[in-house]
Amino acid sequence: xxxxxxxESGATKECPPSGRLIVLTGPSGVGKGTLMRSLLQRHPELYxxxxxxxxSPRPGEIDGKxxxxxxxxxxxxxxxxxxxxxxxxxxxxxxxxxxxAVLNQIRSGKLVVLxxxxxxxxxxxxxxxxxxxxxxxxxxxxxxxxxxxxxxxxSEEAIARRLRCAQEEIKAxxxxxxxxxxxxxxxxxxxxxxxxxx
Length: 198
Fold this sequence. Notes:
Layout: E1 3-8, E2 11-15, E3 20-25, H1 32-42, E4 47-48, E5 52-53, E6 68-69, H2 72-80, E7 84-90, E8 93-98, H3 99-107, E9 111-115, H4 118-127, E10 132-137, H5 141-150, H6 156-170, E11 178-181, H7 185-197
Helix pairs in contact: 5-6
């Protein structure tokens, strides 16, 4: 059975049934990025969609590998042109998923993995109801706060903002197909692999 994907209003394209969109989300500091990096190392056949953001690079982040770092005005221009599959503002910065690259990979039969914020994940659930959505949870809120502070990359104000957002995001976990608690890293990674390949 062919799956029909919404490309733009009024247009559809057929997609081979082997291609699929997988959405990984969860609160800031829960370990999404680390889980994603390990998943990609173990499974190079996965296509990871690099998001676009207006936030500044963190130490060690590389443009085009971790994110595409662009200005707010350029991001807003791309939104106006319909270039994003989803986009959202989080902690004062914009984040978005480039549309065409993802759709092309799904059409070619690839498993495409997105690591995105809650608002973007909700948009994907509406436009791609067949996407597999996975929510990563912390073992506890105290542990999440410890992880965010342990990164030592954000100001106290940014940490407080991330923690407020995290409380709201955790409440949304049940909206997703699968919830995985990132208590033991290796176990969480195996749970994701079982969801994707099981």
